[in-house]
Amino acid sequence: MILPIVGYGDPVLRKVGESITPDYPQLSELIHNMYDTMYNAYGVGLAAPQIGLPIRLFVIDTEPFADSESLSAEESAQLKGFKRTFINAQILKEEGEEWGFNEGCLSIPDVREDVYRKERVTLQYCDEHFVEKTEVFDGLIARVIQHEYDHIEGILFTDKISMLKRTLIKKKLQNIMDGKARPDYRMRFYNKKGR
């Protein structure tokens, strides 16, 4: 089932997500719905707060990045095969050089800005079967993980840009809050009349 994506300004996007247990209600259905919602919006990642749930859960599928002409065959293959569910994730370490990449967010449609993040991340998490893992990720996969991880920490990519850039996008952010954005996927807007 495709769920509405929560828009910028909703307080749930600012909450630190709570850890969940294997008996979380209808967890496998929720994960399935999150993938459906992400694919419907042409996203590469989706965190539970973006569908209104303040829990430590996010899903990623980097296949859309795999066709980029700037990637090596090895990088492309790595991105093509990367589909993963992350539950109760904790970043243990971020390392390497910071590098910029033009990021967007399904909760903040039509806004894209360069964000600088470390190139490598060590993550402890549970998969959808609650098998605990600790892995190191790098490149674009690390970036998508860091972006989605920020969501479960109540952080948005717009928090990581300069004050000047935030000022320049202020009107766009207000339009999203007021329900004036028109993405081609379902959204729930914070200030929209009749809500």
Automatic annotation (TrEMBL):
One of its GO terms (molecular function) is peptide deformylase activity. Fe cation binds at residues 105, 147, 151. Keywords: Hydrolase, Iron, Metal-binding, Protein biosynthesis. Pfam families: Pep_deformylase. It is an enzyme of class 3 (hydrolase). GO terms for biological process: translation. It comes from Flavobacterium fontis. Its EC number is 3.5.1.88. The active site is at residue 148. The keyword Hydrolase applies. Binds 1 Fe(2+) ion. This is Peptide deformylase. Removes the formyl group from the N-terminal Met of newly synthesized proteins. Requires at least a dipeptide for an efficient rate of reaction. N-terminal L-methionine is a prerequisite for activity but the enzyme has broad specificity at other positions. Its cofactor is Fe(2+). Belongs to the polypeptide deformylase family. InterPro entries: Peptide_deformylase, Peptide_deformylase_sf. It catalyses: N-terminal N-formyl-L-methionyl-[peptide] + H2O = N-terminal L-methionyl-[peptide] + formate.
